[in-house]
Design brief:
By secondary structure, the chain is an alpha/beta fold. The structure holds 1,3-dihydroxyacetonephosphate (13P) and iron/sulfur cluster (SF4). 1,3-dihydroxyacetonephosphate (13P) binds next to loops.
Length: about 290
Amino acid sequence: MKEFVILAHNYVRPEVQRMADFVGDSLELARKVKEVDAEYIVFAGVDFMAEMAAILNPDKKVIHPDPCSKCAMAARIKAKDILKAKEKYPDAEVVTYINSSSEVKAVSDVICTSANAVKLVKSMKSNRIIFAPDKNLAHYVATQTDKEIIPVPENGCCPVHHALTLEDIARNLEGYPEAEVIVHPECTPEIIKLADFVGSTSALIRHIKETGAKTIIVGTEMGIISRMKRESPEKNIIPASKYLVCPDMKMITAEKVIKAMEQKGPIVHVDENVCQGARKALERMFELSTPER
Ligand code: 13P
Ligand code: SF4
């Protein structure tokens, strides 16, 4: 058994991605976490990802190189907001985006990621779904299903993706009118409407490899661009806005990863009660979503 396995999200710094044993989107990372054969999982991503690893593989010690690296969208919802919504809509099921705290996951029926949100919502028994915490992803899911989607909170979103504007896309299309526009579903409904392809971070990377288009305008966080260029060197890959930078993802530096391995910490701890509830909701996600790729 190895001592350390480094797992990294597609948005972390390129040098951290190069140090990693596996780089992926949230769903791929959640699956990977369960099969890791190492004493320590070093998680290069934001806090909810490292907690998710500790919840899904309690036999391993999970190290988060910087516990201050927190997803700004996940911070916008608390467990009490979900409980209140459940009281208001007792017939609804709660589908919560993986970008949420462990406490919020623990009071949810099932967890989804950007890769499987549509599929999961379609598979729910109830016609009414409380969807937390991203209103943009909630809107996208509503356009792809017949379900009534209630976003909780009303205004939850990722500040990074929400900042991408139609003007940003138009400016790029002026220079490259033939380009394809591909975006993450955390972007606003107006952006999603004009996009040629919408998908999770890894789905965007795959799409670039598979599309016939030569020039692709990419509407998501900048950290993904270096991997796209590395894996599709023949394509002209243009970030829709170079200001789409998640400061919390960037807090995970190569130096912090090395220090964390030397010190074998900080170790992620999740309260046992919270852990049980969150694990149930995460495991339900695996039951309901068969692996696509
Ligand atoms: P993915 O699950 O698509 O990798 O996205 C995670 C995320 O934080 C997007 O902002
Ligand atoms: Fe959270 Fe947005 Fe950063 Fe993704 S890009 S981790 S949703 S703040």
